[in-house]
């Protein structure tokens, strides 16, 4: 707690024309892998939702590397035999110097006697300031499954279903979203369950827990970036058709492979309703636009939105190739698969047993 207080300067009177931002202590118990208590932590957080843009802060941009860029760098390092160094900065957010004048109330436990009316001016960032931008949920001993989602499962929004704790469900989905940074095989399943965070039911929770059961059984597997004779970057795209039973929007996916291992992937519901399988594929891959530039009324919204792909193809920036269904890796991003097909595409992504690969 004293470390958090170091972000605060000496007491001062609140200048005219300024307002204070309230703060609170957030307590957390950090556990070891076996469930024992490691240590107790406390964060002093600012109630950033009361920040006023232009007064308390002006910029919120933070130069954070995207996960796909990090994976690309790992792939390049493997290809070129570069050494990799990993560093960690403790309490990173608390090292940021503030440019704006920000005043906060005296935090609980640190109120100065006879100076209760005074406020603190921040000299460094606090958690939850706008400019300072694998939880397992007791499933370590769960029954294991071989796939993250059942093939025949069709999730829907169920207003009459038994509702569960909304906050708990969001925490579960958030943890799984974090894990998709290194687990492309769960991307589609996590994308599906993330659509029901407004009204989650017991059924949605069971599907989410199944993903944890799958992860527990594949904890020794991961992406293996290796050196290839010839460096290559290949992108694959695919889409189902009207797969969402609620609004009949299609689910698209893509995978970018660097030296035969995935470095970037996505599974997401399309923002528009497509009227045919052709349009669904067109939105994600723009194949029809590149091959047939004819414009008609029903496809105008698609042609305008994805017109730049046709220009890139014509200029030779990208090349488009047809991919057979049996070799379409992105199927794993658009729909649940039977076990043989799932395991085949799983390996094509570059996923393997890490210990065996290192040996």
Automatic annotation (TrEMBL):
Domain of life according to the entry: Eukaryota
Record domain Reverse transcriptase Ty1/copia-type: where: 10-147
UniProt protein name: Mitochondrial protein
Organismal lineage: Eukaryota, Viridiplantae, Streptophyta, Embryophyta, Tracheophyta
Source organism (scientific name): Cucumis melo var. makuwa (Oriental melon)
Entry-linked PANTHER family: CYSTEINE-RICH RLK (RECEPTOR-LIKE PROTEIN KINASE) 8, GAG-POL-RELATED RETROTRANSPOSON
Annotated TM spans: none
One Pfam family here: RVT_2
SUPFAM superfamilies per the UniProt record, alphabetical: DNA/RNA polymerases
